[in-house]
Amino acid sequence: MLVFNHSILEKALNALLLGKCCDINAGSQFAEILGVLICPLWLCVGMFRERTSMFNQHNLEEILDRARAAFIGMAIGDALGASVEFLTASEIAEKYGTFRNIVGGGWLRLKPGQVTDDTEMALCIARAILQNQTWSVEAIAENFAAWLKSRPVDCGDTCRKGIRAYIINRQLVAPPNEWDAGNGAAMRILPAVLFSLPDGELLKKYVIEQAHITHNNPVSDAACLCLGQLLHMALCGAEKSRLLRHVDILVSRIPAFNYVPYHGLASGYVVDTIQTVFHWFFRGRSFEECLVGTVNQGGDADTTGAICGMLAGAYYGMAAIPQRWLKKMDVKVIAEIDTITKLLLAYRSFCKFIKA
Ligand code: MN
Ligand code: MN
Questions:
Q1: The domain at 60-348 falls in which architecture?
Q2: Under a CB-based contact definition with an 8 Å cutoff, are residues 87 and 301 in contact?
Q3: What is the pLDDT of residues 95-120, one digit of tens each?
Q4: Domain range annotation of the chain
């Protein structure tokens, strides 16, 4: 009986995914329809896997809600923080008191709600997974290359260097470099996190492979992995006390990540970025508090905002995201995130079911 159901589901999903209807880039209505079709399918699949799967111990709808909130939270943190990127905390305080609204501007002269490279690179990874219906580093690098050629509003130096090396030499793994400890690999990990949920080994593989296209550095790797594991835990509903214990393990292994006492550095160096995110995430009592604290620290505020946004989104869920922020966001970006999140989880859960 189960075998019969497997093959029916497999055929149905392949027909849908192989058809041209899944053109996520074009933002076609078909992709949304597909999301709606797959959601019940995914729920059915979840029910079949009752005894073994984490998806059955937790409410599937709750995980989807947390995943959406993580992706949207990332985009919101990016759009919010970009206005104050490269200002110092005291410059922000002088100009705004406490900065708490999505207003655009900043050094990139953004429209209110416009996202930057942080969100765009994460979308490149998500689209590569869905276009190929599997994990492919080549496809991700290819999307990064197309994105760089499209003259994005911003791109970090290490990311640019890595993508150029791919365009010129087809290089998929940047040479190890002790200076490449920027936050550019950590800021875009969310699709790798969602597509590996809840498998810790797959998480490692995906998170590190996407990172090494541009950042091949042990400190960046450690940050990406720890952040990825925290996201897996938060998406499955772990309490902050449990997340905190996990962070303590990272800090005992790599003391540089210790954020207590917090020294207020919020640069693009991944150690500063992670310290800032941990400090504000663990002391904040709501999605809004976590994000406002983080971006008011200034520095690489769009990226600390994006990372704190994905973590706080996964932890607090959609209901905690302020409407005044959500309303300011680029409607197209939010629509694509909604579709992508559903498909990443649906396809992931479906693949596991087929193999089981
Ligand atoms: Mn950015
Ligand atoms: Mn940035």
A1: Orthogonal Bundle (1.10)
A2: yes
A3: 999 999 999 999 999 999 999 999 99
A4: 6-53, 60-348
